[in-house]
Batch of 2 targets.
Target 1
Amino acid sequence: MTVAATAIIHPHVHLGEAAQVEDYVILGVVPQAGTDQELETHIGRSATIRSHTVIYAGNRIGDGFQTGHHVLIREANRIGDQVSIGSGSRIEHHVTIASRVRLHSNVFVPEYTVLEEGCWLGPGVVLTNCLHPLCPQAKRCLKGPRIGAGAIIGAHATILPSLIIGERALVGAGAVVTRDVEPGMVVVGPQAAPLKRMDELTCQYGLMDHPYPGLKT
Amino acid sequence: MTVAATAIIHPHVHLGEAAQVEDYVILGVVPQAGTDQELETHIGRSATIRSHTVIYAGNRIGDGFQTGHHVLIREANRIGDQVSIGSGSRIEHHVTIASRVRLHSNVFVPEYTVLEEGCWLGPGVVLTNCLHPLCPQAKRCLKGPRIGAGAIIGAHATILPSLIIGERALVGAGAVVTRDVEPGMVVVGPQAAPLKRMDELTCQYGLMDHPYPGLKT
Amino acid sequence: MTVAATAIIHPHVHLGEAAQVEDYVILGVVPQAGTDQELETHIGRSATIRSHTVIYAGNRIGDGFQTGHHVLIREANRIGDQVSIGSGSRIEHHVTIASRVRLHSNVFVPEYTVLEEGCWLGPGVVLTNCLHPLCPQAKRCLKGPRIGAGAIIGAHATILPSLIIGERALVGAGAVVTRDVEPGMVVVGPQAAPLKRMDELTCQYGLMDHPYPGLKT
C-alpha cells in the first residue's frame, strides 16, 4: 500500500491491499447529517485514488477501483469491482454502481441513481433526479435514472429523472433524454429521438464490420 | 469555530462564529490584478466551507453560507444569507447572489451575474456574459443574466448573456435560453420555447395537487 | 520564482524564471502507464499555476502559461506561449495547443485534440474523440477535433470527434456540432446549423460597427 504523506484518512476506513492513495486525498469524511452509528468505509484491493479526491464515509467499494483527480464521492454508495470514476466527477449519496462501470471526466450522478454492469458515461454527462426542484415534497420523489448494462451515454448528454436507458443503448453526445430509451437503440438530439438500432451502426474507419459485434444477432 | 490544520487563511479574512473550514481550503486569496487597498473578506456566522474550496479576498458573504468541495469563488462578490454553492461550482467576480440561493454542483457563474432571492440552479448549469468573445471591445459589454427570485434553472441548461429569467420561471434541463423568459413560465429545449405556465404543472407522483402551491392564484 | 510551501514538485520538472506556483499544486506526476524513460516537464517563463492544479510529467509548455484552480493537465502535451487554461478544466494527453489559446472554466479536451493559434473555448465546452465508446477497436480511431485559428467555441458547446472547426468560425453557446464548420461561419443549435457569416455579425450595443473587424474583407 502506498499512501501519500498529505493524504488524510479518517477513522473506520478499510483499504484493501496494494492501494495507492495520492496527495491531498481525503477518505472517510463523516457526513454532516451523520448518524450515531460509526460509518465504515470499505475500498477493495488494488485501488488507485488520485490526488485531491474526496470520498465520504459509509461507502462499500469493490476491487480495482480507480478515481481521477478532484473527484467527489458522497456517502452510502454501493460500488462494484473494476469501476473507474473520471477526474472532476461528483457522485452523490445512495448511488448503486455495478462492476466495470466507467464514468469519464466531469460527470454528475445524483442520489438514487442506478448504473448497471459495464455501462459507460462520457465526459460532462449530467444525470438528474428531481423533476420539480423547490417543490416542498421534492425529497419524497427523488429518483435518478437507471442506466442499463452496457449502455453508452455520450459526452455532455443530459438525462431526466427516473428514466430507464435500456441495455446496450447509445445516447448521442449532447442529447437531452426526456423519456425512456429502448434497449439497443441509438437516440440523438434535444429530445433524444430514436435514430437507428445499435446493430445498424457501422465503423466509418473500416476497421471492422460493426463497432459492437456482440450485439449482432 | 473549527478550522482544519491544513486550511490556509490569508490576512484580512473575518470568519463569523461557529464556522467550519475543512482541509485544503484556501480563504482570502488576493487577486493578481489587486489594488493597493487591502481587500477585506467577510464570511458570516455558521459557515461550512468544505475541502479544497478556494475563496478570494474581497467577498462579503452572509450567515449560514455553505460550499461543497472543490468550489472556486473569485473576488468582489456580494452574497446573502443561507446561500449554498455546490461542489465543483465556479463563481467569477462582481457577482450578486441574494439570500437563500442554491447552486448545485459544477455550475458556472460569470462576472456581473445577478441571482435573486431563493433561485435555484441545477447541476452543470452554465451562465454566460459575453455575446462576442475575442471582440476587442468585449470588456465594455460584459453582462451576465439576471435570474429572478424563486426561478429554477434546470440541470445542464445554458443561459445567454444579459438575459432576464423572470421570477419563478422554470428552465427545463438541458435547455439553451436565447431570449428573456417571462415570470412563471416553463421553457424547454434548444431555443427554450415556452411550454406552459408554472401553475399548470402537476405532480406526476400524485403527492400533491401542484408542485408549486404558492404560485396558484 | 515563488513556489508555495505546500506545492509538490516531482523530479524532472523545469520551471522558467518568474514562475508562481500556488498552494496544493502538484507538478510532474508520472503517468501510471509510464515508460522506462524519464519524462521531462518543461514550463516556460512567467507561469502562474493556481492552487490545486495537477500537471503530469512529459509536458512541454511555453512562456506566460496560466492555469486557474483545480485544473488537470495529463502527460505528453505540446502547449505554446501565452496559453490560459481556466479553473476546473481537464486536458487529456497528446493534445496540441498553439500559442495564445484560451480555455475558460470547466472545459474538457480529450487526447489527440488540436487547438490552433488564438482559438477560444468558452466555459463548459466538451470536445470528444471517440465515436463509438466501448468498441473493441476504439483505441485505434481516437481523434479529437481540430479547432481552427481564432475560432470561438461558445459556452457549453459539444463537438463530435475528429471534426474540423474552420478558422475564425463561431459555434454558438450550447450548440452540438455534428459536422465540420466552414471558416468564418457562425453555427448554432442542436445540429450546429449555419446561421450567418462572422462578417455579418453586428454589435448590439452600438460600441463598434463590427465585433470582429479583422474579418471584414
Target 2
Amino acid sequence: MSAFSIIEDFRVKTNQAFLDKAAVLEPVLNRRTIKPKYMVSVEEDQYGEAVVRKTAEMWELSSMHFRKGNKVVFDFGDHQVGYVSFTAEALGSHFDAPAYIRLKFAEVPAELMEDSDAYDGWLSKSWIQEDVLHLDILPYTEKLPRRYAFRYMQIEILDTSPKYSLKLSNIICNYASAVEMSSIEPLGSEDEMLNDIDRISIKTLMDCMQKVFEDGPKRDRRLWLGDFRLQARVNYVTFKNFDMVKRCLYLFAGMTFHDGRMGACFFHEPDLQVDDTYLMDYALFFCPVLWDYYEASGDEETLQELYPQAVGQINICIETMLDENHIVIDQGETFWCFLDWGEGLNKQAGAQAVLIYAIRYGIRLARALGDYERVQQLEKQMDILKKAAVETFWNEELGMFVSGNERQVSWATQVWMILARVFNEEKSRELILHTQQMNPEISMVTPYMYHHYVDALIQCKEEEKALAEMKRYWGGMIKDGADTFWEVYNPCNKQESPYGCAMVNSYCHAWSCTPAYLLRKFYKGNEKFKELFRSVDDR
Amino acid sequence: MSAFSIIEDFRVKTNQAFLDKAAVLEPVLNRRTIKPKYMVSVEEDQYGEAVVRKTAEMWELSSMHFRKGNKVVFDFGDHQVGYVSFTAEALGSHFDAPAYIRLKFAEVPAELMEDSDAYDGWLSKSWIQEDVLHLDILPYTEKLPRRYAFRYMQIEILDTSPKYSLKLSNIICNYASAVEMSSIEPLGSEDEMLNDIDRISIKTLMDCMQKVFEDGPKRDRRLWLGDFRLQARVNYVTFKNFDMVKRCLYLFAGMTFHDGRMGACFFHEPDLQVDDTYLMDYALFFCPVLWDYYEASGDEETLQELYPQAVGQINICIETMLDENHIVIDQGETFWCFLDWGEGLNKQAGAQAVLIYAIRYGIRLARALGDYERVQQLEKQMDILKKAAVETFWNEELGMFVSGNERQVSWATQVWMILARVFNEEKSRELILHTQQMNPEISMVTPYMYHHYVDALIQCKEEEKALAEMKRYWGGMIKDGADTFWEVYNPCNKQESPYGCAMVNSYCHAWSCTPAYLLRKFYKGNEKFKELFRSVDDR
C-alpha cells in the first residue's frame, strides 16, 4: 500500500503572525564532535542476518592503504545525526587519476548488506543514505554537505589508479541536536532493561529534535502532528524544551488548509509549507498537544491564541466527517486517517474513537479558558458519539468492537475505543484482556500503535501487564540491536516495511520514544512500583 | 597491456628558479558561457552504433516535467571543456524527498550508451564522467564543482517522489581555455574537408590549452612531453601562445629525476610533481621542443638556460641506454619508450631512431649557441648511431627495418628511421612507398603515430600522398562524427582502446591536432599546392 495524498489546486490559509512566532523560536543546534570507536566488518550469517565484528582499532587506520575494491566500515558506537568529514590522501608514486569512492551510512548493520540498485519500494529511493564521490584533488578534507543519520559509515573504494592507494584520517561526525541528554536524570531503576529502554527512548527523541520535532532524522525529517504529540509528551518528562513545542504548535496553526483543517505534516525547508495531506486523527491531535503543552508549561497566552483552532478541528470533523447516525464515514483505502501502518486495517471505528478522545481534550481546553458553553456542547457531542460508537461497532457476541463494512476486528480499534473511554474502566479492562486472549489477526506493526496499546493497559490499571509488554516489545528491539528505537518493529517479521522495502525504514523514529514518558509518568514515583526504583529512593 | 611505471624511493632534482619562472607564466583562463543547442535522444541502431536525433528545442524545456526514470540529453553543439550549472525546481504538491539524479557527460554519443558498471579497463574508472547527486533543497542552482569535457550532457532522474516532478532550467557550461580561436585566420582552402580538418585540429588544441598543455581535457589532463612537442608546433602556426610553451619547458626542466633524466609527464595539481615515468623518446623530445620554441619565439635567454638539460637528455641515453655496438638495449614489455599504443609493438629500433632524430636537434641547439665542440661531438655520435642502426636493423631482403630479438617489422620502425634520416631522401622515399605496399601487420593505432607517418611522407616529398592520408585518417574521424580529434582512431576497429575499454578513451586529444600544423606549414603558401588555396590568394 502506497499511502500519500495529493490535492490538485491546493489552497492554504496563512496566519503570518503565528508563523513569525514560530520563526523566532527556531532553535540553535548544539554541535559535538564524535569520532568512530573502531572499524568493523558486517557480514551475513547463515540466517541472512547481519553480524558485526570488530576488525581494527582506530589507531590502526594510519597504517592502512585502501585500493580499488576495498571497503572499510567505521562504527561510531551509537546512533548519530550530523555532518561527516574526513581527510583523504594519496599514497604511492603519484595521484594520477581522481579517487572514486562510495559512501554508505547505516543506522543498522543490515542496511550495509542491501543492494540499493535492487530497491523497489514506493518511497523515494533518494532516502537511501548513499553517495558517490570523485576526489579530484588530494590531499583533501571532504566536508560532506548532507546530514546523515547513522551509526555505521562505510567507505568503499571504487577506484584509485595503479599508481596510488588512499589513506583516510580525521573521520569525524559533527553531531547536531537542539537538546543535550547529559542534563537528564537517569531513570534509576533496579531493572537494567528499563534503564536501557528509557535511555534509548531519550536518545531517540534527542536525535529527532532538530529545527523542529522531526519524525526521523534519516527519512522524512519533518514535523508530523501525530508524531509530534508523542514527542512532546516525552519532552515534558525529559528535556523540557517548551520552546520547540510552542514553535511547532504555531507552525501547524500558522498555515492550514483554506477551510481551516490542519495538515498532517509540516515542511519547514526550504520554506514553510503545510503538506496537502489531511489525516483526521492527526488533525484532531492538535487538542491533546495543546492541552499537554499548557499543562506542562502553564503558557496561557498560547492556549488562548490556539484554542479556537484546536476546537475548530473537532467541529470540522463533526460537520464534515459524520453520517446521519453520528458515525464517521469510512473513506476506505484512501489516506484519510492513520492509526497504524499495516495492510488492510480498517480505520472507521478507530477514527470515531480518536474523535471522542480529542473531544475529551477539547473539553479540558474549554474548561481551562472558562468557555463553559463550549464545554457543554462538547460534552453533549461526546455522549452522542460514544453512544453511536457502541451501537454501531460493538459486537456483543465477539466481545469486541468491529470496524467498516466488513466488520473487521483489529487491535487498533479496541485500543482506541479504550483510550476514548467509550466504556467505563472495568469494562475497558475486560475488553483489553479479552483482546489479548483473542489476539485479532489485524495486529499492530508500529511502536506508535504499541504505545497506544500500553497506554490503554495503564489506563485500565493493568500496569504490570503494560510493563511486561513494554519490556517485550521495546526490549525486543534492544535485543535485536537497536541503538535508537525503530519506526517499525514486528518481532515476527523483521523485514516488515510499510514502504515495500526495509531499506528506507527509519531506525531512529520519534514515535517510538514513548517508554521514557510512560516509565517516568506512570511508574517512577508510583507507590505500587517502588521496588522497581528502590535504588533511587534508598540513596 | 597496462602501461605504467612506478619507481620505489623515487627521488627528484628541483631547480626552484625554473619552477618560479613557470609559476609566473601560469595563464588566466578565458571563460565563456555556452548554452545547449537542443535536446536529443541517443539510441543504438542495428549495427550497435549511436544514433543522435533531435527531440526538442531548448525553449520547450520550461514546460517539461521530469519524473523517476526520465532521461534528457542536452546537446551543446560542439565539444566543451568547463564547469556546468543548472537550476532544478520541484513542481507538484510538495518537495517531500530529495531529488536523486545521475549526470553523464559524453564527448561522443556512444559514451551515453555505455554501462559504467561494466567498465573493466586498467585505467581508473574514476575518469568516466558520471556523477550522482542528491538535491536536498529545491529550488536550487547546482554549480557542479568538477570540470567536464563533453558535448552531450545527460540528466537521468533516479527518483523524485510521488508528490513532485522536476523542472530544469538555466543549463549552462562555463567554457574555459587559455586561448581564443576567433583570432585565427581560417585555412581558406578550396577543399572544404581540409578546412574542416584544420578547424577541428585548432578546436582540439584550444580545448587542451588550460593551465598547461593538457593531453586531453577528459582524462589524464596533464602535460606529457611527447604530446607537448606536437601541441607546441600547432600553437606556433595558430595561437602563438609562446608563454605557455615557455612555462611547460621550465616545468620539465625545473623538476627531473635525481640523475637528470626528464620525466615523461608532469603534474601541476595539487602541487608540482614530475611523474616517475621515464620514456626514452619523450625525454629526448626536449631537444626538438626547445629548438622549435627558439625558432618560433627567438627567446635566446630560455635557449641558453635550458640547453644543458636538452643535450643532457641525449648524453644520458648514450651513456646508459646503449650496448657496446651503439644499439639501444631493448627493454621489452616495460614502459620505457612510447612510439605508439598497440599490442606487441617492439620499440628497440624506433628508440634508436628517436635518439638519432633528437641528436639532429641537439646539433641545431649547439650551433645556435656557438657550442661547436658539442656540434662536432654530436655529429660524430649521430654517424655512429646511424651506421649501427643500419647494420643491426636493416633487412635487405625485406627492404625494411626490423626491431628486437624477434626481428619485428612495424610501421613505427620505418617511419622513425625515415624521420631520423638514417637514409638519404631518395632511399627514404623508397622505404616509405615499400612500407605502404607491404603494409606490415604491426600497424599504427594513434593519430600521434599517424602524424609521424604523414610527416615522414612530407619529408620524402610525397606531399600528395601525405595529404591523401591526412584526409583519409582525420577526415575519417570527421565522417565518424568527431567534433574534436580523438586519442585513438582505428578505422577498422572503432572500439579500439589502449585501456581495455573505449569508455575511458579521450575524444579530444591534443596529439591528434597536428593537421593544422602540417597544412599551414607544408601546404599553405607552397607553390605546388596553390590550387588548394586559390580562394585565399585570389581574394
